[in-house]
Amino acid sequence: MGESGHFEIEHATWLHFLKANHWLPDWMPEMVPITWLVILILSATVIIGTRSLKTRDPGRFQTFLEFCVSALHGFVKGIVGEHADALTPIIGTFFILILSLNLFGLVPGFTSPTANINTTVAFALVAFLVVQGFSIRRMGVISYTKHFLGDPIWLAPLMLPIHIIGEIAKPLSLSIRLFGNIFGEDMVIVILIGIVIGVLGKFLLPFQFPMMLFAIFGSFVQALVFSMLVGIYIVAAIGEH
Amino acid sequence: MAYLVALVIAIGFGVPVAVLSGAIGQAKAASSALEGIARQPEAAGKIQTAMIIALALIESLVIYALLISLILLFIGIPSAAELIKSVVK
Question: CATH number, domain at B74?
Fold first, then answer.
């Protein structure tokens, strides 16, 4: 942001060498390799942790992973109810990935990939496909389109546009909510640092620290709300018929 | 220059109005949730979950207003002359 000149921030993270050497295409923002790095860290953690699973006398890391999985399963079961076995992977992945991406922006030298509208729109599109695909597979195509037409069949010309607009508004609001919250938190931190530099001349006091604590809390809440809303949209799409 | 002055005044009044309405809505939602928890403490988990969802949905409307102000500030809208030039060419 700020290419027009009145708010110049030089975007450089620890992965800037990938762009400086032109190993990436020029249109790719710097947050994409950061997303890859987060995915790499999460996958490596889980793959190394599940290499030798034991049923008796498990180690500490396996117990921790089992705790995470059972906590996510209970969380999804509270929302979805009976479909929890099929939906825990996708909703749990949304939660863990969005939480990791949000928190990664607070590490010095990195930026939040979710502070860019492209990442959040990608998440929202996947969530939209998951909701529609799951409800089509569960209800069948015929009753799925019938639910779009509403209860008294002669109200169909009115109910159909309303339902379609409602279905499109869901991924739109998901993406804008996540982007606005995380981008706003990061921007407040940046501006607080700028204020300290402007008043004191150098960066002497970490005045942005309370805001970073609030940003940790906000990251949790936004990840929770995103995954919970995906579950609720699925329940609403199935239970209406 | 006048455009920038008008823009700053518009954003300076528009975003706080959105924040005010959002705060009133969230206050109502939170107070009903707290009343429900006080009435039935054993349903506290479900009420808390529903309250968090309601707060996030109301807050997203406030963020729409912030998003529009950010778009106007940093991406901007073209003037009528530029629009006509791009269409005519």
Answer: 1.20.20.10
Cα–Cα distance measured from residue A159 to residue A156, given in angstroms and rounded to the nearest whole number = 5
Contacts of A222 in chain B (CB under 8 A): 56
* Residue A224 forms contact with B (CB below 8 Å): yes
Domain of residue B55 covers 2-88
Among chain B residues, CA nearest to A78: B46
Euclidean distance between CA atoms A229 and A207, whole angstroms: 34
Q: Where are the domains of chain A?
A: 16-137+173-239
Give yes or no for a contact between A235 and A79, defined as CB atoms under 8 angstroms apart. yes
Instruction: Map tokens 């159909």 to a residue.
Output: A160
B79 touching chain A per CB within 8 A: no
- Taking the alpha carbons at both ends of chain A, their separation in whole angstroms is 46
pLDDT digits (tens, 9 = 90+) for A138-174: 888 888 887 777 677 777 788 888 888 988 999 999 9
- pLDDT digit string, tens, across residues A33-43: 999 999 999 99
> Of A61, A75, A108, A48, nearest to A226 (Cα)?
A75
Helices (runs of H) and strands (runs of E) counted in chain A:
8, 0
> What is the tally of structural domains in chain B?
1
Q: Please state the pTM of the whole predicted model.
A: 0.85
Report angle CA B63, B65, B68 to the nearest 5 degrees.
110
Q: Count A/B contacts: CB-CB distance under 8 Å.
A: 40
Other beta carbons less than 10 A from residue A76's beta carbon = 25
